[in-house]
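Encode chain A's predicted structure.
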Amino acid sequence: MSIAQTIRPHLPYLRRFARTLTGTQEAGDAYVATLLEGLVSTPSDFPTQMPSRVALYHLFLRVWNSVRLYTHGGDPAQGAINTAQRRINSISSLPRQAFLLVAVEGFTAAEAATILEVGESDIESLLDIAGQEIAHQVATNVLIIEDELLIAMDLESIVTSLGHTVQDVATTKTEALAAVKRQKPGLILADVKLADGSSGLDAVKEIVSNGEVPIIFITAYPEKVLTGERPEPTFLISKPFQRETVMAIISQALFFDTKAHPRPAAA
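Encoded structure for chain A:
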């Protein structure tokens, strides 16, 4: 199979990644074109020892990190897209690349490490940096709905390490609804099966009926959530989870929430 045939299925996703990384489709396509021109002239540069999608992104980021073409701030009229883009542009370069590879493009930490030519442990550090930089913009209060103590403690640690505040840890639907009455959360991390046999999914349905809030389901039963009915999750993490995955998805959920507000400046 030729290189052109190998990479063709991945090009739409690479263009999306390039657009997000640079700020506009025009700038992103300029980098993609530079990469493709290089492959045409020197096809032997394509690393066939890697999976094709990993290899393509690996080569693209070599171009991005070595050649500066141009970027553009985007069209202010794009609203939510432009808001997210401004947040992305504010993250330091390498953490931003790691964040986009894992949270947006869906690569594993091991694949992202190969693409960026760093150790797998470095990816967790880069995601931590990205998450902290995001939190400085959109730090929020988080409601955790989880009945397993150790998992709840792990989630609390992740949330606070990113600069967010845990407002409550609820173990039942009743506790979750009471927590929301006391204070509306900026983000919810929810399990599906809870301690008393109640449902985190039912709790979330009631919560979102009174106003939108970003929700991440973290569950060993994804089939209970993927029903096609509201609230169909934008963000779903299966148990057992990896710390870096949760960090990336929390940051992604807040990045693309148009209602997320920056942390007030210190006096």
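The longest strand covers residues 165-170.
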